[in-house]
Design goal:
The chain is an alpha+beta fold. It is 37% helix and 24% strand. Strands 1, 6, 7, 8 and 10 form a five-stranded antiparallel β-sheet that branches. Strand 6 and strand 7 form a beta hairpin. The longest helix is centred in the C-terminal third of the chain and has 24 residues, at 317-340.
């Protein structure tokens, strides 16, 4: 593996901004048959990136090969960058783009070309790509305002931890959520969700913990929360009840508390639904929702007791006793009030 080293003769001026080089090797390029391949994450210019290629195999020898640079880090970054395709033996340049300026506002943004070079040219006998690897060199130069802000600042611990989310290489456990595999780290689970970590004791990333009753997207977003990644308000507001249910079953206790607060805040209780909400809250130990339901029952006691839904409490005698005691206390309090006055 070759390395690139910068050697300075004399002191660089204050305005000097380095150019960062990374080389990504796609082995067995000629045999790649899928529409898209992505590299593992790599650090360049104090930022996390991946390189994505479209081998063009579906177009035969006349197919076009595409390439994209993808940002994986949270902070906004503005860079000049160029990409070149090279022979993997002597580094002979096959194709290069002109330097372009791009702003990467958030993780997942990618920039590149879907017609970078023809597949026929890459696989010609002139180069070693047919029997070897396609080497792609990425050159990145941060813009001066960005570099000055970050030159003397290391990434925060939170940014470092969030960048580990679903990182297969360093993970030591995995979840098979229906048809999707998600990777995680037991030490993070032990801190953020110890009950979930206990469930994973007998599993690792080669033997995933199976989960068949949860939407993969929801589980992925909940797992992201354990790594400090943030979701918008709608994640909590629109899916609070589902988050509570999944959290109760799989041990996302820290998420359950937050989801419960959101759910209780927007809860619209009626005579017909209050018993259902009370039973659910009691079964999942949701104290905020249970208190809201009990307060409603005390306030609308006669209507609730006379409703058909109240009969559902017959299957939960301890809870029915709690409701009876609460109603009795409320009635006793109302009887005493006129005497005190």
């Amino acid at each position: 593996m070759s390395t690139v080293q910068d050697i300075h003769v004399g002191k660089p001026p204050a305005s000097f901004i380095p150019v960062y080089d990374s080389r990504v090797h796609f082995h067995d390029f000629s045999r790649m048959s899928q529409p898209t391949y992505s590299s593992s994450a790599f650090m360049c210019a104090n930022n996390c990136w991946t390189l994505e290629i479209h081998p063009g195999s579906e177009g035969g020898s006349s197919g076009m090969v595409g390439v994209y640079l993808c940002s994986k880090s949270k902070p906004r970054i503005v860079v000049d960058f160029s990409i070149s395709f090279k022979d993997d033996i002597f580094g002979e340049e096959i194709a290069r783009n002109k330097k372009i300026k791009q702003e990467f506002m958030y993780p997942g943004i990618k920039c590149g070309w879907n017609d970078f070079v023809t597949r026929k040219k890459l696989l010609s006998k002139k180069y070693n790509v047919r029997d070897g690897a396609l080497t792609i060199e990425v050159r990145i130069r941060p813009h001066s305002d960005y570099f000055c802000r970050r030159a003397n600042r290391l990434p925060s611990v939170g940014v470092c931890i969030s960048s580990l989310f679903d990182e297969k290489n360093t993970a030591d456990v995995a979840f098979q959520v229906k048809d999707q595999v998600l990777y995680a780290h037991k030490w993070i689970l032990q801190i953020q969700a110890p009950d979930l970590a206990d469930l994973c004791d007998l599993f690792d990333k080669t033997n995933p913990f199976p989960i068949e009753d949860v939407n993969p997207k929801l589980f992925r977003n909940m797992l992201r929360q354990l790594y400090g990644c943030k979701e918008d308000v709608h994640f909590w507001k629109d899916q609070a009840k589902q988050i509570i249910e999944v959290s109760s079953k799989y041990g996302f206790n820290v998420l359950r508390e937050k989801a419960e607060a959101w759910y209780a805040h927007d809860l619209k209780l009626t005579v017909n639904n209050v018993v259902d909400e009370l039973l659910t809250a009691d079964s999942m130990s949701c104290s905020l929702i249970k208190k809201a339901a009990m307060d409603f029952i005390v306030k609308h006691g006669v209507e609730v007791v006379e409703s058909d839904s109240f009969r559902k409490l017959d299957d939960s005698r301890p809870l029915a006793l709690e409701v009876t005691i609460a109603l009795a206390k409320a009635l006793d309090s109302r009887r005493k009030r006129p005497r005190d006055e």
